[in-house]
Amino acid sequence: MANGQQIAQQNLDAFHSWVATQQDEDFKQIIFRGQLSRSEVAKAIGCGKSALNQNRKLRDALKQLEDDLRDRDLLPPLTDMAKNEFDKPQKYDNTSNRIALDSKRLSSLEAENIELKAKVKELKGQLERFGELSETLSEMGFMPR
Fold first, then answer.
1. For residues 143 and 19, what is the distance between their CA atoms, to the nearest angstrom?
2. What pTM value is reported for the model?
3. Which residue has the higher pLDDT, 128 or 79?
4. Among 78, 68, 75, CA closest to 29
5. Which of 71, 78, 109, 143 could form a disulfide with 82 if both were Cys (CB 3.0 to 4.6 A apart)?
C-alpha cells in the first residue's frame, strides 16, 4: 500500500501525463468560471478534487498550466483582486445558509402576496357587483331575507 507522499507523486505524474495528451480544444471544453473545472481535471487524472487543493505540487502545477493557458488566450486574464487573493484562504461566511433560506422564503412570500392581491381585487369586483344588485332589489321592493 502506498503512503501519502507516494500517492501525491502518482497524482502529480498523472496530471503531467494528462496535460501532455490535451490539445487547446480539450482545455476549452472544461473551462468553468474563468479557470479549468477542478472536478473535470480531478476525474481526468483519477484523484479527488481535494487532492488539487491539498497537494501543493499538484496545485502549483495546475496554477502554472492555467497561467500558460492565459498566456495563450485560452483562459481570461486574472483580475487584480484575483491575483492578490489567490493563495489566501477564503473567509467562512456562517450567515450564507441563513441568507439563502431567507431569500427562498422571501420569494415564496412575494409570490403568495401577488396571488392574494389578485384574489382581493377579484372579490372586490364581485362585492361591487352584488352591492349594486342588492341596491336594485331594494329599490324594487324585493328585499332578500
1. 90
2. 0.55
3. 128
4. 75
5. 78
